[in-house]
Amino acid sequence: xxxxxxxxxxxxxxxxxxxxxxxxxxxxxxxxxxxxxxxxxxxxxxxxxxxxxxxxxxxxxxxxxxxxxxxxxxxxxxxxxxxxxxxxxxxxxxxxxxxxxxxxxxxxxxxxxxxxxxxx
Length: 120
Description:
This protein is mainly β. It has no helices and 11 strands. Strand 7 and strand 8 form a beta hairpin. It starts with a strand and ends with a strand.
């Protein structure tokens, strides 16, 4: 069993930055970590993923060059650095743990989500 707790969300002006954190506990060795986001009334959308060793990363086209995923296995924490934020980035952001992939079905464990709101 894996427990995930996100933090770092909030309200920021367009062009600003936020760093989301996801603290993991339980059996996390070898798992890929991912970030997804969900807009009101929409399905969860892939944002970024990173393998256990960090040798593979993937970012969605919508965030490429603006968001960076990283992890610190010693702290069991994964981060999402979000720069140049846009109002269309406003969503609930979820951390997930599972197998490497771009779809939510590849991930077995989910955090409770953290709200990110970008004002124009």
